[in-house]
Write a structure and sequence with these properties.
By secondary structure, the protein is mostly helical. The protein is built from three helices and no strands.
């Protein structure tokens, strides 16, 4: 691999990562509304899968529009979808953990 192709690979991957993070943030509130009522009854692994399933349609709809606007080649679309799904799951679990910590703090204060 030449230095030029290595640089193109690294910068291309960084662009895909940024796009995935932006998409995850754009979808996070919609996905959270879908999962917040049930996520507290699940184990960590179950919650990850549940968020992934519930986020699927929302992420795919927003992703297809965004990929067209950003002219992302078809060969990268699957990678962007994977990165976005991973990011949306992490955002939802972070939000849930934050709510758990607040609830625990309120319980201790009472």
């Amino acid at each position: 691999m030449s230095i030029k192709s290595l640089i193109q690979t690294i910068t291309g991957q960084a662009k895909l990562n940024r796009l995935a993070e932006n998409l995850a943030h754009a979808c996070s509130s919609v996905v959270w509304q879908k999962v917040e009522s049930r996520i507290d009854t699940m184990t960590h692994s179950q919650a990850r899968g549940y968020v992934r399933v519930k986020a699927g349609r929302t992420v795919r709809l927003i992703l297809s529009d965004t990929l067209r606007r950003n002219l992302i080649p078809h060969r990268h679309q699957t990678k962007v979808l994977e990165l976005t799904m991973d990011a949306i799951v992490e955002l939802a679990l972070l939000k849930y953990r934050g709510q758990q910590a607040q609830t625990l703090g309120l319980q201790r204060a009472a």
